[in-house]
Amino acid sequence: MIRRRRYSRIGLVLGGGAARGWAHIGAIRALHEAGIKPDVVCGTSIGALVGAVYANGDLDWLEEWVSRLTWQTVVRLLDLRFSGGLLGGRKVIQLFADKFAGRSIAQLNMPFAAVATELDSGRESWLQDGSVTDAVRASIAIPGIFTPVWHNGVWLVDGGLSNPVPVSVARGMRADCVIAVDLNNDILNGRDFGGAVVETPAIDPTAPPPVALRRNGKPWPRWLAPAESSVTDDVRVPPPPSARVPSMLSSVAQSIDIMQVRITRSRLAGEPADILIQPRLGGMGIFDFHRATPAIEEGRAAVEHMLPAIRARLGME
Asked: Which are the catalytic amino acids?
């Protein structure tokens, strides 16, 4: 029989990462199959949602539901609005609210905490009591995407702004061994842009300076000619035909990725987990909720790859 020998209270930390969070399902499955069952769970953003469902004993339901998601289904669940955020999130959160059936965090099957961020002060907020639904809704409120949540006199937004992989929360819940799942390790280096890399031609330093032309193709009079500093290299080397201005959602998604990576690395450097699991999700975007199957498989594979080290750390036979 597998038994623990070294630690009495194992904490599972589920990091933020939007659609990449479905990898948490596979990671939890693999841990359970290896005989590793956490005593407490906490999460940020999508990690809070998966963590709450797990603590409520509904992981089977969640895996079945996300595995059926299509892009069309995801679009139908998104309720567009024009104040506070692009999406209201009512349809999505109502689906989970029905599953939580009005339970409070204290009524879950295991200790749970969600992380959100106070919009005015930037302080992180640990949500460890009250409504499960309200805590999850606050933790997933990505600024500009989902509307903020009014909670105890302050506006709360996504916990990823302050603590994307909340190891400190698990420590605060008295976990003496913390297993953390970081979804953002390789998302900048491994991004799948879906197109070939276009090399920009080198600029010949001996070439004459570019000449600014008017709309009629004739040069400006000397006294009206633009300053030399205003004539950029773009006059000499136009952007490649495939270059397009990023869409609004693409710009938001990539900006969020950059923010998550930088904050995650900084927080983990100061508050390291005992065991850090990092699925390879570089080709998956934050809105790819319909790609649950490969995400779940990668979460499982990441844990299985780490199992020898995990067993050694936990002192398991």
From this structure: 45, 158
